[in-house]
Amino acid sequence: MTGTKPFTKSSMTTGGMMFLVILSLLPSVYMGVFHYGLHAALIIVLSTSTAVVCELLFEVIFRRTITINDYSAAVSGLILGMILPPNVPLYFPVVGSAVGILAFKMAFGGIGKNILNPAMTGKLLLVVAFRSKMNDYSCDSFGKQTPLTDMVNGNDVNLVDLLTGNTAACIGTGCAVAILAGAVILLLVGIIDLSIPIGAFISFTILMILFGKNGWNPVFFAVQYIGGSFLFTVFFMAEDYSTRPLTKKGRLIFGLIFGCFTAVFRLMGYVEDAVVFALILCDLTVVIIDRKLLPVPFGLIQTGRSARKIREARRRRERLERERAEEKDSDDMVWENELDTDVLESDSRTPEDRG
Amino acid sequence: MARGTFTGGVHPYDGKDLSRHMPIKTVYPRGIVVFPLLQHMGAPAIPCVKVGDPVLTGQMIAKADGDFSANIHSSVSGMVVAIRDCETVGEKQEKCIVISNDDRFSEIPYPPVRKFGNLTPIAIESAVRGAGVVGMGGAGLPTHIKLSYEHPDEIDYCIANCVECEPYLTSDYRRIVENPAKVLNGLRILLKVFPKARGIIALDESMQDVYSELRRYTAGDHRIYVKKLESKFPQGSERQLIYALTGRTMNSKMLPSDIGCIVNNVDTLVAVNQAVMLYEPLLTRLITVSGDCIARPRNYRVRIGMSYAELIERAGGFSSRPALILDGGTMTGKRITNLNVPITKLSSGIIALSKDRAAAMKETACSRCGRCVESCPDKLLPITIYNDALKGDKTSFIKHHGLECCNCVCCSYICPSKIDLADKINNMKREILANPDEAGDYSRRLSYREQK
Predict the structure, then answer these.
(1) In this predicted model, what pLDDT tens digit does every residue of A194-205 receive, in sequence order?
(2) Which of A24, A286, B4, B358 is the most exposed place for a label (fewest CB within 10 A)?
(3) Does domain B112-278 have CATH number 3.40.50.11540?
(4) Fold of the CATH domain A14-292
(5) pLDDT surpassing 70 at residue A338
(6) Which residues in chain B come in under a pLDDT of 50?
(7) Sequence ranges of the domains in chain B
(8) Which residues 132-161 of B have a C-beta within 8 angstroms of A?
(9) What is chain B's alpha carbon radius of gyration, rounded to the nearest angstrom?
(10) Rounded distance, CA B440 to CA B185, Å?
(11) Residue B351, SS3?
(12) pTM of the model as a whole
């Protein structure tokens, strides 16, 4: 029983939001499993369940409140599974998930307190430890290299395959259509907004035009946006609540920094891993952005300008009143006649329906 | 100029359809009537009757203690039986005058009605002061303080607040539907005090019917404007209302008169009209009785001093057992545990709900989703301020502008983790303001806010 206002609260809960995130990720999961088969599905299941089990174990051992019912661990695990190549050994998702959740989420104090994205740190660890294995995308009929690497090496790329995900890529990040569908769901239910994507696309595009050696070439940009998990990272991973700035302006800056870092890493030659390094570095800037970028409270600054505006409005109105007074002599009694008797009726003295 | 709304805010379930279509009904108290001496912001009034004195309806029973106080009048005729401590809303004990009602409602003699043309600002102010009119939007600032602003020429806008953003309450709407002429006349009386001001009647966008009617009434009057504002909480809060209507902003250190505005609730304007034209003191209040546990939700014209229990009984009682009874709406109301408390000048509604939604929701860890930041109408970082308050860190609380918070509770409403941000922030604010050295410029406005 709470004694304090408000006595009504919105029906949205943390668990509800995370559940919607999982729903919006499902199209990409489906396309990944559709293209890469059962092994991919097994990777996703293993990484998700490891994340949940690790969080549960940690909380049981250290006697914390059980928080797996807010689905945030499931989201982290699911996302980690989706950014792994489709043919990695099955201990990869287990190790990545466990390290991401235990060392980078729970050790910092759980949801909302971690400064690094747990899924991305899991992948970073795997990339650092098993560089060649993590860059091998061969699976079924698909080649070893992703379209982005192909293009960087000077080969031709099929754009339609890139949209439908019929190419070599990480499990969940190949199909641009499914990712955009998920992003639209999240935008419509208000879980993410466009400030991070706008910032990221602006700075990434500008840097790529300047230094990408391909000018305005639309095919080049389509592959740069969709390939290498850029789209997926911008809409799903950079928008992770714990590791993004609080204000809209801060998020725009965060997006700009992320786009810059990604472009720089891609130009340096880290093709597929650019977003991993870029996101981890960006997460480190969030603390500074949040501390330095305080919004100005409503009406706190009463500038000379606003005072002048008030003075001007006053003068304008006085002129208007004078003009009106010249036109017709204002008469207070005019409306008094047109009012009904209501004005002069008692509000509290009518004992009509007493009883 | 007119923006129509503000940034931030929330859209709680408003439940206004329960009571908005029913006409106002008058109920009269029977038996004992209780008048707390503090029914306004400021100092409690001083009783000017003794135990055993006979009183008439409309007779002054307590006199204002200084300028920052208001007179209290008996709303019934009868005899003073006691002056003692009684329980009032919010489980507080306050000194009250208890009058036994003789059920005859014999009135004091009233002078003949005033002529509008002969009114002077001084006459208006003294009439309002004598009638004990207070701001009925919730804060309860005595209205004569607003009227006695030292530079009446500097007031540009005189705003009649009929936005009523608080869920469930419909008394302002019923008031302006049933007595538009009284509201307009009250506004015109205020415009006499402020010769260079324009009057604005601010309506909610859902009040389309009233809007067109008022536009017709005010067609010939170039000093009065009618404006519609977006339905959003807290649109009726002073700062947000002024911003939406005029584009002027104010912070917690300022009063509306600093930026040339005076805001009055429509119910206050009616009381001003009654006081000035008819010499009638403030004796009744419109109370919304609503909620899903009330058998017949509607608005009642109630004598001040009647108890909530009696009002509910006369309104048809409960249809089912309520889990939550509130004085005021669901956003800024107070929980009532004992229904035998008197209705005061500040009561606005009684809401009985079958479900205590907020209590059923468990607090979880903050996920930093930033919804509180987006919903904050003051553009603060509620979660940062909340963390400062948790740590008890006064320096960074002030640095993060925690004192600017207007306590609109939007952050607590919207939080997906169900954290009571507003409560904690408000406690911290009160703690800092208790010490004038730390409060600095803020003490001017907030010090009397706290006496609510």
Answers:
(1) 999 999 999 999
(2) B4
(3) yes
(4) Ammonium transporter fold (1.10.3430)
(5) no
(6) 1, 447-452
(7) 112-278, 371-449
(8) 154, 156
(9) 22
(10) 40
(11) strand
(12) 0.89
| H helix intervals, A155-303 | 159-164, 176-188, 195-211, 218-226, 230-232, 248-268, 274-292
Q: Which residue of B has its CA nearest to A11?
A: B416
Q: Are the C-beta atoms of residues B272 and B188 closer than 8 Å to each other?
A: no
Question: A312 pLDDT exceeds 70?
Answer: yes
d(CA A83, CA A96): 11
Q: Are B366 and A335 an interchain contact pair (Cβ–Cβ within 8 Å)? A: no
Residues belonging to chain B: 452
Domain boundaries, chain A: 14-292
Cα gap B335→B387, rounded to integer Å: 26
CB-based contact B179:B308 (threshold 8 Å): no
Candidates B261, B268, B325, B256; CA nearest to B294 is B325
Length of chain A: 355
CA B427-B432-B435 angle, 5° bins: 135
Per-residue pLDDT tens over the stretch B225-271: 999 999 998 898 989 999 999 888 888 888 888 888 999 999 999 99
Output b/e per residue, A54-76; b: 16+ Cβ within 10 A: bbeebbeeeeeeebbebbbbbbb
B209 Cβ under 8 Å from any chain A Cβ: no
CA A172, A177, A181, A184 dihedral sign is positive
- Name, in order, each residue with C-beta under 8 angstroms of A34's C-beta and a sequence gap of 6 or more: none
Task: Say how far apart CA B215 and CA A297 lie, in whole Å.
Answer: 35
Chain B residues 246-285 with CB within 8 Å of chain A? 248-251, 254, 259-260, 270-271, 273-274, 277-278, 280, 283-284
Strand ranges inside B102-207, DSSP E: 157-162, 198-204
Q: Note the ipTM here.
A: 0.87
User: Under an 8 A CB cutoff, do B367 and A5 touch?
Assistant: no
pLDDT digits (tens, 9 = 90+) for A113-127: 899 999 999 999 999
SS3 of B87, please?
strand
**Whole-number CA gyration radius for chain A:** 29
Nearest residue, CB atoms, B367 vs list A111, A353, A355 = A111
